[in-house]
Amino acid sequence: MAAIVVRIFLISILCLIGLASAAQSVIRMPSDRTAGETDSFCNSWRLSVETNNAGLWSTPEGCLGYRVDYFTGVQYASDLTVVASDSIAFARSVTPAGDGKDGWVFDVDETLLSNLPFYEKFGYSAESFNEELWNEWVNSTAAEALPESLGLYRELKELGFTVFILTGRDEFQRNATTANLLAAGFRDWEKLILRGKSDRGKRAVVYKSEKRQELVDQGYRIHGNSGDQWSDLLGYAMAVRSFKYPNPLYYIA
């Protein structure tokens, strides 16, 4: 009996070692992988980022070029189109009450406005974030609308939704943000909410939850919420449906 137990134990250990080796071979791609394997791995990495499986992440070695191709090619625009289409389909399924209380919340950066020209200068986030240069970019009011978001925004207004814009930008950037949104074609939002002094130091998910709760307390029904970060969408006072925009550039908790 003892010999049988020992044999089973050894077999179990060998199986575990084999599984561990297999798992390692899946997670850590060989350094000499082919171009096709690299594309496949980087596609899987992006999926992990967008589903929040990766958590706080950095770009894997070998995927920087992939990320550049993603934004400059057709895939990014295609992904945005699908997000906007899904959002419109849901919005059309809602019948606004006509009291002005049916709301939709939008983030700004990488949701309504694209900052790709800014990040392109720094290797699409390959270099460290520079807050001073970022503030200069915001003040330039040069960010353009994501066309898919502009179409969604206008559709929501026609359907009778009240639109709120909730951004992690600071209050001192209100004038520049307002000017940029107007120049990009966004009009007639109900309220533009930015971080005030009391919001400094708060995690994004806490800050945005608090601001959504204030809207709920005012009687608004938040049907939809659009943002490129999970912290735009999760927490409490959540929308009936949340729509995650693609963004393998940066992560904000």
Automatic annotation (TrEMBL):
SUPFAM superfamilies: HAD-like (SSF56784)
Gene Ontology MF, one: nutrient reservoir activity
Secretion signal, residue range per the UniProt entry: 1-22
Matches recorded under Pfam families: Acid_phosphat_B
Keywords: Glycoprotein, Signal, Storage protein
Matching InterPro entries: Acid_phosphat_B-like (IPR005519), APS1/VSP (IPR014403), HAD-like_sf (IPR036412), HAD_sf (IPR023214)
Family statement: Belongs to the APS1/VSP family.
Functional description taken from the UniProt entry: May function as somatic storage protein during early seedling development.
Record-linked PANTHER family: ACID PHOSPHATASE-LIKE PROTEIN
Record protein name field: Acid phosphatase 1
Organism: Linum tenue
